[in-house]
Amino acid sequence: MDPLSAAQQAEDDSSIDLTPMLDVVFIMLIFFIVTASFIKEAGIDVSRPQAETAVKQDKANIFIALSPSGEIWIDRKNVPTSQLKATIEKLKAENPQGAVIIQADRDSKSKQLMQVMDAARDAGITQIAVATEAQE
């Protein structure tokens, strides 16, 4: 046997098979995609009122914005009051443990705020909060 071919054969035998490592990487990628929570934004910017007792909410996946002109925005869409409960129920079905954060503009009407809160409660959501700006 030629010494050169023996060294070549030993080098071929000691190569690393990367297939199992690639399998693990793809499985981890799928795991992170499946477990990631995606936040749906309300769709408009609002001027939130200030509050001294503001508390940061960690788990919130349903954002509802109230504009000063009386529009209700969910997931970048203007939602009429008649479809509010159905829209919230659909979002709750997508994420059963999600909380509702209402981003009411400081010039919006309290009547609308109550309508949104009632619709969220009717949809079965108990964790409802109103977004504010923390005072400094």
Automatic annotation (TrEMBL):
It holds the Pfam family ExbD. It is a single-pass membrane protein; Single-pass type II membrane protein. It comes from the Bacteria. Its main location: membrane. GO terms for cellular component: plasma membrane. GO terms for molecular function: transmembrane transporter activity. InterPro entries: ExbD. Coiled coil: none annotated. Keywords: Cell membrane, Membrane, Protein transport, Transmembrane, Transmembrane helix, Transport. The keyword Membrane applies. It is found in: Cell membrane. GO terms for biological process: protein transport. The chain crosses the membrane at residues 20-39. The keyword Transmembrane helix applies. Belongs to the ExbD/TolR family. This is Outer membrane transport energization protein ExbD. It comes from Sinimarinibacterium flocculans.
